[in-house]
Amino acid sequence: MKAFLLEDIDQLREHLASQRTLFTPQCTGGANELNWLPLTSETRSTATERPILPTYPAKQFFFPEREILFQFDGTNFKETLPTPTPQILFGVRSCDLCAIAYQDQFFQQDPYYQARRKATLLVGIDCHIPCEGGFCPTVDAGPFVRDGMADLACHQHNGHWLLMAHTPEGEALLQGMNLEAAKPHHITQRKNQQQQVANQFPSAAHIETGIQRINQAQVPAETWQAMGLQCLTCSGCTNLCPTCSCFTSHDRPTSDGYERERSWDSCLYDAFQREASGHNPSASAGQRVERFWFHKFSNEYKKAFGRYGCTGCGRCEKTCPGVIGVHSVMKRISAAL
Amino acid sequence: MDTALHNISKITNTICPYCGVGCGIGLRVEQDKITGVEPLANHPISQGKLCTKGWSTAYAVDPIDRIKTPLIKENGEFRPASWDEAYQVITEAFSAAITEKGADALGIIACARATNEDCYAAQKFARAALGTNNVDHCARICHSPSVAGLRQTLGSGAMTNSIDDIEKADLIVIFGCDPTENHTVLGGRIIRAKMAGAKLLVVDPRLTRLARMADLHLQLQLGTNIALINGLLHIIFANGWEATEFLNSRCENEEALRAKVKEYPPERVAAITGVPEEKLIAAAKMYTEAENALLTYGMGITQYTTGTNNVISISNLALVAGQIGREGTGINPLRGQNNVQGACDMGALPNVFPGYQDVTAPAHREKFAATWQQELPENKGLTSLGMTKGALTGDVRCMLIMGEDPIVTDPDQNHVQRALEALDLLVVVELVMTETAAMADIILPAAAFSEKEGTFTNCERRVQLIQPAIPAPGEAKPDWQILGELASRMGYEGMDWESAEAIFNEIASLSPLYQGMSYPKLAANYGLQWPCNEQAPNGTQLLHSKTFSRGKGRLIPVSHADPAEMPDEEYPLFFTTTRLHFHYGCGSMTRKSPLLERETPNGVLFINPEDAQPLKIKPQTRVRISSRRGEVETRAVVTDEVPPGTVAMPYHFREAPSNQVTNNAQDPITKMPELKACAVRVTNLEQETE
């Protein structure tokens, strides 16, 4: 890993944008609304005191909400693998980077995902203040960018930036910037600060207790049923969750045949697991809600993927209209007798 | 659908096109296509949330089946035509009808999902370009009783409070509606309030989600709203629980109401409604004891032959309890469509101009005649159902229907079908080939909400701007533009607006409710709630806080009356219509989403186990539902959500149209059809036993 000092992060962004198409979270509406958008001449610096997560995580850059898998013209099948232009995602937070690493494993054999993934370089950014509703330290997903999760990582301290290049591709991007090398004490400062920042997060005891109770099957069925009643099946949680990867497909007519489209699915729908006979192994909303949280916090998934499915971003809590996002759920199951 | 890398170019913030909640929604655009949506964290109503329909919006406006050019039917098939040719045929037919029978031989159905600008144009086209007041829209079959009823009691028919008031109430009364299913983001705020300690009182024949969460559920018999409320009022007066000071200072006609409800002692009411006396007393106590009680209601109140009286009854209850005119209280009709409030505000109704100004009042007519530079018709026009009847009698010869699908959504499908077939000319302005569009002689392609500028007015009277994210496909245009072009060909030049904003400014100049609004003000504020004028330059969150729109709140005695068609030996079950969360209206938008289409079967009959068992009906059993109007076949879902003796169907599925069996018996005041109650017989098709 090579480390450098950087005065102005906007300068880095501009330098990178001159080499590849660059996307970065930007303001489109109110003050605390950021969205992944291409850098344009109108882009203002969106550095804020308190980190704000973009509405969506980065998953749609690799696993888009809708994509064509192949086309059929009546005689021949035509492959429709993406032909991506090289791009950079600039300013990805640690929680979202952990989720990309998680999905990299899930979609390891998926040529559509991998084509996009291989064309993308990631520039991460450390969080110095807990974002609202986040709990990444509790699930080992932040607040600082983990080694190996980004090509470049940025860390702000006393008005300037520590810039770490974790991959040869990341380092190559810096050519022409003439950056001063960082000193060992800069690296140490960063290492020491992470625990300080983690300590600033509000208590996540309900998360820890909730995880325990899920894994020890200690949550009463009635609690899941009561929460299931509040699930309005909006699909917001699964759309915005950085690690959710369920999809479905359907065929759409074209002018000369059909194309098969893959699109995001949601395990909270009744029809997600409903079979042609009408039988449904997860017939009740409570069962489906339980399954979702099992997938996020089960130790079994930790074994398979090296971490929990949840990266502590808190988006589900913000978008759930039924008041059963992560904090609401974990508080409730921690307290359930 | 491009296969290239996720190549987002912009996000356009706008307002969701589905229900009357009016959530903020961001449309994600990639290479001139809408590929997804983003919830808006800062939007005051939606606060970062969306419902499943909102999340599926990209599919709803997908170009895959959009109509892109005018279409003319020739020998039973549609062929593309130019705008000139289409307009020519229309103006010739319209002019011929006017010459032979007069302007009232024409009828316009405006669209509660189009913008205020589109609806304003529709009524101006009818009145100024054609010379008829025959203009209406689907509020007729939805909240027309709210408009008529509350106008009499309060002076204004709209939601008295705001969505924010939900969190200020310590009791929320859900009367004949299912907000978590249909006004979902608003329903979510009700859930949030409940979890924060508010109590829930649900009045519904069904065991809905909120009924299951409620502190008290009054599971009344279909069609007994007035008996129930008169019963509650009886108990309230008997116990001295009424808001005496409020009644004395702000209401009138109390004695007449007291006299009427004397006829509704708990014993009689329990017998009529099926609700036990203790629950009636508990409900009366809950509602009057609450510091702030907010009442919402929906189709379970309005869609009856007693719809207007049902609304008056609700008003009586709120006034007697003094639960109105303050934050956290109020009478809150949940307007269904994204812009049905606006369509009413715009006067797309046969009896009022924009701003609810009477067409029969000379002063109002003169004002509009002066601004529009045209003499205007003097008599009230026909309602939508009146136009359908008129088509069959030959009084109505041509109709123009914008963005509505009466073949699927009006009562008595066979009747509607015969009526539309009988017309000399049927013009339909649409996005896609709906069942009604398929019957048209001419189809004109319309721009969708994501392709034009304009305003929607939600259930809390909030007028919000919508923004175009992509260009309209092919030759599709905004409805107001189409109507303006037609008007000019009919010889009326007063509709040649340059922009939607020009129309809005005209609206603001004519409607006192919108007077203080402008596009820049709306853009700066996440919209404004009417009335917005000199007295209230930033809009109005709370109506009737000092005085009612008509001065004093009027208490009006009303009596229980059975639905027009009660179950009998031949048709022994009550039939009611419901909505599903996953679909909207006729399904022309939601059924384009693979997830929504997958979620429910394309037709379903909800039946209680007690009714299913003797007929040997199990889940998925094929059944036939028959009434005196017609019959429909579908599959059964056996559930306790409907009470014994009552079966229900959603109306979203053209393959299993519930309006084959529904009754078009009408509320005499508003002509609202009794979609909520009729009598049916259910047959098990797999057994053919009865």
Radius of gyration from the alpha-carbon trace of chain B, in angstroms? 24 Å
Rounded to the nearest angstrom, the distance between the terminal CA atoms of chain B is 51 Å
Number of strands of chain A: 12
- The order of strands across the largest sheet of chain A is 3-2-6-7-8-9-1-10
Helix fraction of chain B by DSSP (H/I, runs of at least 4): 25-40%
* Alpha-beta content class of chain B: alpha/beta
Total of DSSP H or I helical runs spanning 4+ residues of chain A: 12
Oligomeric status: heterodimer
For the largest sheet of chain B, list the strands in their spatial order: 5-4-18-17-16-6-7
| Total E-strand runs of chain B | 28
How much of the polypeptide of chain B forms β-strand, as a percent range? Answer: 15-25%
Uncertain runs of chain B with pLDDT below 50, 5 residues or more? 1-5
Q: Would you mind describing this structure in some detail?
A:
The complex is a heterodimer of chains A (337) and B (690). Chain A is built from twelve helices and twelve strands. Chain A starts with a strand and ends with a helix. Chain A has 337 residues and is of the alpha+beta class. An eight-stranded mixed sheet of chain A has the order 3-2-6-7-8-9-1-10, with helices on both faces. In chain A, strands 5-4-12-11 form a four-stranded antiparallel sheet, with no helix packed on it. Chain A is globular, with a radius of gyration of 21 Å. Chain A has helices at 9-17, 94-106, 111-118, 168-173, 184-199, 205-215, 221-230, 236-240, 285-297, 299-305, 315-319, 326-335; strands spanning 2-6, 21-27, 34-38, 66-72, 77-79, 87-93, 120-125, 152-157, 160-165, 180-181, 247-253, 258-264. Chain B has 690 residues and is of the alpha/beta class. In chain B, 33% of the residues lie in helices and 18% in strands. In chain B, strands 5-4-18-17-16-6-7 form a seven-stranded mixed sheet, with helices on both faces. In chain B, helix 4 packs across helix 23 (500-510) and helix 9 (225-239) crosses helix 13. The longest helix of chain B has 19 residues, at 83-101. The termini of chain B are far apart.
